[in-house]
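Before the break, one more example. Copy the sequence into your notebook; we will annotate it together after we see the structure.
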Amino acid sequence: MRWCWLALGLLTACPGTNVPPDAARPLTTAEAPARPEVRPPVILPEDRVPPPVDSPGPVVLRARWRKPAALLLAAAGDASRATSMRESATTLGLGPGLRGLAPHAALDEPIEFVVVADVETSREAPVLIPALSIGLSSLDDALAAGPVRRLAAGVWQVGDEGLGPACAIATAKASPARLVCTDLAGRLPTLAGYVARQLPRQVEADAAVRLDLDLKPLLAHYGPRWAEELARVAFVVDHLAEGDTALETALEAMSSAMTRELVDVGTDLDGMTLELHDADGSGMELQVELRFRSATSWSVQRVLAGEDTTAPDMFGRLPADATTAAFGRADATAYEHPAALGARLFGAWLDAEAIGTPIERRQLSDFVTRLVPPSAPWVSATGIDEKASPWRARLGFDWYVFGVSERGRPPWVPHLDSLAAVLERGRVRDALEAELKREVPHIDRRRAVRGIPGASHYRLQFQAPLGPKGAPREVEAHLVVATHGVETWVGLGADLPSLTQRLIAVREAGPDQLSARPSLKVLQSTPAGGFTSLRSFGVPGVAMLSPFLRRPRRLLQAGLDDAPHRGVTPLVATTVRRREGQPGVVWTVAIPPEAVEDATHVVARWLSRLVPHLP
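Here is what the structure looks like once it is written out:
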């Protein structure tokens, strides 16, 4: 992915665009490399006004950054630092044939990333062709910057052949020229002309950032064949337990249900649009729309289910220092069948492996059956403590609180005692760990909780990959279940005293609750799902890709720890469901100026670590 460095080298402010000419550091005679004379190519009349170019396939993904110059300059801090970023990034990854284009990058022009799908070459799966497109300030100057080779009308290849991505300069409609790069050199002559000239005409949006995902072409072309392949996989899975009738039957039921669900989801999906808009007061607004052609699958029905109502009273009594909070109301009957399938398969596997006694196996599988949400209003929140817990760097929080009302006690709560008792028996634990090839958490029941009469306390001990370089580390957590009238509150955290104080505070109105935060008053009158934050949203998202993004995760965590507002500013999310006409759901997230300031701080910190030569 060397062409990612091309993006970094050209997207950090360049002389001649948003950086004054005198801000660039001139090279001394000793530093300046010897450069052979380059003659500009002859530009033919048909190059100036080339004919239209058809796409090599449907565009399934398009991301458009309308004006990157402002954010990039803000991340750099000043013009000279931006220039240093560009020079250092060039030494890290750009080929000699592309370095001369950096001064001609037009950062006030949109940057686009597209994925075109070739559905004609292969019957099995599409050939995905990614392309990055960057504006250039002058066609003539760009062509004169280095050796080029004419590929087609209005398209010239630039850079080192065979090294990194294939790149071309192409005449464009909305700007003087575009630089287009792709991993597939053979597609460059057609792809560059299409991306530079025809693609910008298709979507004109005023959003600062826009992403369009269109799945219809792929599903229409490959959907039936993919369904056949899924059926074959299900057939193989059904026979994995051949010889054990109960397990084979359970596997068949589960694999058939999952195959049917995947096919139905493919039938329902239409596409997704993401837009990031500038808002008043230097804030921003993120809007994500998910569109469906139908609502036959269980997953899509769950997305469209629910009531667009305001927050219940319990929501305002959540801890005031929460970094994320949500509320809702689920239909427990919709989850009973999936839970029953999982319990049936789990129970059949326990029987086949002869783990524990029949009664113990029934207790374990019954607990799975109870893992369904309550049919009552519920609220939840996560947050951080002054003393970080072992899992903050991976999960983004130190504690979790969940509450449910109207006597809707979570069905799994009464079965915690039997689960803890079974797992603490050595023969059951040893057998489970031998079959699963991993440690089973220890659950230690401790009844007394100071300050909360009648509460149940469970201590959990387990190994987690939280040490240096993902090494296993012993982790201790506390699970507390408390009742208050018709309400049930569940807390999970590493520090028991802190968790206990939060569960005490949510029982009665007080100053340490969300209702005391003025910025969240909008949730009292607006249909919403709650709020999140950069810390709660970004850290877990990056951690999901670990260990591939271990270093970026650490940089993100460190950047948020010393950010001006620590990444905990609320990002209020509203939800609107469309059930009439084309079904869909729209999530809107308000991003206040404080969150934008924190995000800019993290970007600047990331760039300074990525480019070690910066001052």
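The two ends are 27 Å apart (CA to CA). The first helix runs from residue 3 to 11. Try to locate both features in your own notes.
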